[in-house]
Every structure is written in C-alpha cells, then in structure tokens.
Amino acid sequence: SGIGSGVGSGAGDGVGDGAGAGSGCPGARRLLAGALARTYADWHRVRGDDPYDHTRRELCTAYARTARRYRDGPGVLARLAPQERLALVLCVHEGVPEEVAAAQLGLPADRVRALTARAVAAMRPGREAA
Predict the structure, then answer these.
(1) What is 75-126 written as a DSSP string?
(2) CB within 8 A of 52, min separation 6: which ones?
(3) Is residue 9 part of a domain?
(4) Quick check: pTM over 0.90?
(5) Does residue 2 have a pLDDT over 80?
(6) What is the CATH number of the domain that holds 91?
(7) Closest by alpha carbon to 90, among 104, 109, 108?
C-alpha cells in the first residue's frame, strides 16, 4: 500500500482504478505531488506527528475537493461514489481504523462504517451498478 494508490479524482486520470501515482497518470501524480508539497510546507507542525498520516490526510482532502460524482470506466471502483472509494481505500486497503478515517474525512465513524460496507458489497463479483 502507498499514498496515492487507489484514490482518484475521476475521468481518465487513472486514480481510483488501481493505477497509482507511479503509472504516469497525471491526475494521480498531481494529487500526490500536492499532498507531499503541503506536508513539506507544514513540516514544522508535522514533526511530532506521523508524516505518512499527514500526507494521507492531505491527499484525501485534495481528492474530496476535486472528485466527480462517478468515474466513467470499466473498473469496479468506477461505480463507487467518491466517499465510498475514500472509505474503502482508507479502511480496507490502507488499514486505517474507522475512527481515524472518520476524523480525516470529517464524517461520523458510523457513516464511514456504512460507506465501507456499501463499497465492499458493490465490489463483490456479479454486482451490477446501482
């Protein structure tokens, strides 16, 4: 797992379809570069915290600001809403506890739990888009 993997802003950027930041996808690279730049700029405040967590928060915030409602494409992640994708990536892929993910997303923990459950259900084989 890594920062920038699996979270996307939509149409054609390759983010959210599993391509990740290292695959040459400009949208993913922009989101990750911005998150890393903000972490660097905030370094004096980050010193006592985990820089990985700080960068992940920045990445989630940037993604949430720029995400389209749904992403067109063939991947299973394409049919998830942006919040569902974020919850799925944070809680399942990154292993972030629901309470921490909720704080990073500015949502109640129950909402993150529901988003994650809905996203996992949508990922099951044979599920059609809602």
Answers:
(1) SGGGGS-HHHHHHHIIIIIS---HHHHHHHHTS-HHHHHHHHHHHHHHHSTT
(2) 3
(3) no
(4) no
(5) no
(6) 1.20.140.160
(7) 104
